Amino acid sequence: QVHLVESGGGSVQSGGSLRLSCAASGLSFICMGWFRQAPGKEREAVAGMDADFSTYYADFAKGRFTVSRDNVKNTLDLQMSSLKPEDTAMYYCAADLRYYNGSRYVCPHEYKYWGQGTQVTVSS
Question: What is the pLDDT of residues 39-50, one digit of tens each?
Fold first, then answer.
């Protein structure tokens, strides 16, 4: 059975830092990512690891957030710095198995496995 468990959320002041961690069990994933959803807004991708082990970041995360993977522990961490009030949201970890599309390995467009989320609140 697959489980994704997030940890590390909390409340910080603007300009502060937080480190989120996602621990996966049941399967070893390459495709893993962090997503967030603020009240009244759609879920959006934050950062993650792609099928070729490269990392990707949303524009708002570039320069402030860093994603890192521990292959032994099967975890994906998100280091967030220079946090802003607009970063306030529920942050979710998601994962899925990569697949071969005939020419290369890719991650599914929609991830199958999701964690319960961890709240991040940034006050001004």
Answer: 999 999 999 999
